[in-house]
Specification:
The chain is α/β, with parallel strands linked by helices. The protein contains 14 helices and 13 strands.
Length: 371
């Protein structure tokens, strides 16, 4: 089997020649990804291209500005340079007043930190929702490049947000949970409106270009212990189920992304009708072992996971090999499993220890993942 065949078969819970190996955000076949243009990652990325199965994370450009709409005239930004970081200060003008937010990016770290959120109160949420809804447009002009680069070495995966992801991160996380618990009627109206917008945008995306796999992000925010199960049933299940049905009607596969403790909500996740679930973290980061997860899903979804990035960054190569062996013993039988870290390094230069452990993970997965 080539990598594309292997991944698609595993996601459909069919038998493969070996367990597919995904390195998550480290994408070997995307010439524009930072890790393929950073010298300290070269040895690792060469190994990834040679020996793993690429789930290429690629998203179309869109006209999105904020809150699932596109109103560029309402948004302005100023950048300020610090000693070893860059701050971006955003100002949003709405019919109900002005809002500001700030995010920071440190040099040689490929992520950003939000240190001032748009909303501090439900009045601020109302300001965001007062922006007229203008459906998003999408640009797939980069698709031929990425499709040609990936070829039979893997599949293409796009990421989409559910309403939870779109609206709750407008507010500091703790405050958004208080909002949901204490102003539930208001929270419901905001979520319903965000879902309405999101479904229109999602269909526009699918009409523009369909890729192999869609990763739906957001459900983890409402998993226990953050909020009780009834909130997940009300604010995740119906929305994500509709998103899943729409994506699958266009012939694509769906993967649910949910870090943390999923044992309590697993039956709800299975009811979505999705094809796969990630990153399936073991205790203590999650609350269900890989062996128990495999038993409970019973072939209904493909499991992506569950090597913790901190293991690859800090453990010995022996410990990495043992963890890979344990993963295979827990989830390999009868297919429906893709071994994958729960995250990926974001720092430059890449630590030699992390590099060695990634290579140990890949070699062990090839050894222990044979059928």
């Amino acid at each position: 089997m080539n990598s594309r065949e292997r991944l698609l078969a595993a996601i459909r819970c069919e038998q493969t020649d070996r367990v597919p190996i995904s390195t998550y955000e480290l994408v070997g076949f995307n010439s524009q990804a930072f890790e393929n243009n950073e010298p300290s990652y070269k040895r690792l990325m060469d190994t990834i291209r040679e020996k793993t199965d690429c789930v290429c994370m690629w998203d179309m450009k869109s006209s999105h500005t904020i809150a699932a709409t596109s109103c560029p005239e309402r948004l302005s930004s100023i950048q300020k340079r610090g000693e070893n970081y860059t701050d971006t200060l955003l100002t949003l003008s709405t019919e109900k007043g002005e809002l500001t937010s700030s995010r920071r990016v440190y040099d040689n770290v490929y992520t950003s930190w939000q240190y001032k959120h748009w909303c501090a109160s439900i009045d601020d949420i109302d300001k965001i929702l007062s922006i007229p809804f203008v459906p998003l447009t999408y640009d797939d002009s980069d698709y031929d490049r990425i499709r040609n680069e990936v070829g039979d070495n893997g599949i293409i995966m796009a990421s989409v947000s559910d309403p939870v992801d779109l609206i709750m991160f407008s507010m500091e996380f703790g405050e958004s949970l208080v909002w949901a618990m204490t102003e539930t009627d208001h929270f419901t109206k905001a979520m319903d409106e965000m879902h309405r917008r999101n479904m229109i945008n999602l269909e526009n995306m699918l009409k523009t270009r369909v890729v192999d796999l869609y990763r739906i992000c957001g459900p983890e925010v409402i998993t226990p212990p953050y909020l009780p199960l009834p909130f997940f049933k009300r604010f995740v299940t119906p929305y994500v189920k509709e998103m899943t049905e729409l994506i699958k009607s266009y012939g694509a596969l769906v993967r649910i992304h949910s870090h943390g403790k999923i044992a309590t909500v697993l039956d709800e996740i299975l009811s979505f009708g999705a094809d796969a679930l990630d990153p399936c973290e073991a205790p203590p980061d999650g609350d269900i072992t890989l062996c128990e997860l495999k038993r409970r899903v019973n072939g209904q979804v493909c499991i992506f996971g569950n090597l913790q990035l901190k293991l690859l960054e800090h453990a010995s190569t022996f410990e990495v090999r043992e963890e890979v062996r344990r993963c295979m013993e827990s989830a390999k039988d009868n297919g429906g499993y893709i071994i994958m870290p729960t995250a990926a390094p974001i720092n430059v230069p890449l630590s030699p220890k992390t590099e060695d452990n990634y290579i140990a993970f890949i070699e062990a997965a090839l050894e222990f993942g044979k059928y």
